[in-house]
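I'd like us to work through together how a protein chain folds, taking it slowly. To get us started, please write out a protein record for me. Label the sequence line and the structure token line clearly, so we can match residues to local backbone shapes. Once you have written the record down, we can walk along the chain together.
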Amino acid sequence: MPPKKKIASVLKLQLQAGAATPAPPVGTVLGPTGINIMEFTKAYNAATESQRGNVIPAEITIYEDRTFTFVTRTPPAVELIKKAISLDKGSATPHTAKVGTISRAQVREIAETKMPDLNSNDIEAAMKVVEGTARSMGVTVSE
């Protein structure tokens, strides 16, 4: 069995799917690590091409020999909520100024999408997590 590579660092980035470029924020974050930025952007864009239009987080593991691996996650709940109710941004004062309403069916759909990345055991718990996110951005959850 070959020896395991030593991990130098683990970074997290949220990038537009299929549209990553070596310009900031990618270049700014990955530059100091010494990995090939173009190689990462090409691999990320190829992996996320089918999800174009979404923000897809990537967790990049950088090894001491300047190689890397990355894992993509599901889009952030905030982005999914904004897309579901056609919202530009959340409320600056979420508990006083409401910016929209989301239905329980839409919350369930988002929770099902986010389920692999949430630490919930069932869909009901995942829905509560998504509802909390919606409330914190000034979106009312309706029945």
Notes: The chain has two domains: 7-72, 77-141.
